[in-house]
Every structure is written in structure tokens, then in C-alpha cells.
Design a protein that fits this description.
This protein is α+β, with helices and mostly antiparallel strands. It has four helices and four strands. It has one domain: 2-Layer Sandwich (Alpha-Beta Plaits), CATH 3.30.70.100.
Length: 121
């Protein structure tokens, strides 16, 4: 069921996505935290990433309306291609965005990520 919801969501969002690489993060809120806090942290993250790189990164925070996991949420990040995704992730691991990683510390946990090619059809 989760796969169907993810695929449906990705299909709906793909109308506004001009990227060819889409990262989908399945996440949970930490105790006592809110989705508004996640959205605020994510907005800062996207702004900082886009200030560092020429290719534009977009990010969506999906809040469940109907789901077997009403406590969880999903990030969908879009990149121009896999190289842009790899570049951003390499910079995060090297510490270039370390101050932004701290924004999500204690806020949410994302145990699952998948990377997809996206193509308009």
C-alpha cells in the first residue's frame, strides 16, 4: 500500500517536476516535534543548497491525508540529474552543509531513501 501511495504521489507531483532525478525520503517525526518545524528546516536547507550550486533543487514535504502511517511523512527532492544529486550529497558528507544537517537533528529521522529517474511521458 505504501508503494502505491508513493507512486501515486510521485505521478501527481511529476506534472510540476522538470527534473530527471527524484529522491524520496520516508521519515518519522521525533517525539514532540511538528511538521511545521520540518517544513521550516527544509526551506532553509533548500535555500542553502540552491545558493551553493548552479542547478536548482526543489523539495516537497508530503503530509499524509490517508495512510497506514499517519505519524510519518515524506520528502521528495528533485534534481536536474543524478550528478546534481551526487554532488549535493557529497558536499553534505564532506561538511559543506553541516550547519544545515543540524537543523534536522532531533527533528526527524529518515530511515529510507530511494533515487529515481523521472521522465515526462
Amino acid at each position: 500500500m505504501t508503494k502505491i501511495i508513493t507512486l501515486l504521489t510521485l505521478s501527481i507531483l511529476s506534472f510540476g517536476i522538470n527534473a530527471s532525478a527524484v529522491a524520496i525520503y520516508t521519515c518519522d517525526l521525533e517525539e514532540g516535534k511538528t511538521l511545521d518545524e520540518v517544513k521550516a528546516a527544509n526551506s532553509k536547507w533548500v535555500k542553502a543548497v540552491n545558493n551553493l550550486y548552479e542547478s536548482e533543487v526543489s523539495s516537497y514535504v508530503l503530509e499524509p491525508i490517508v495512510s497506514p502511517d499517519m505519524e510519518g511523512f515524506t520528502f521528495i527532492d528533485t534534481y536536474t540529474d543524478e550528478v546534481a544529486w551526487a554532488t549535493v550529497n557529497r558536499e553534505i558528507r564532506s561538511g559543506a552543509l553541516s550547519e544545515l544537517s543540524d537543523l534536522f537533528e532531533g527533528l526527524s529521522e529518515c530511515p529510507s531513501v530511494t533515487l529515481h529517474n523521472s521522465e515526462e511521458s
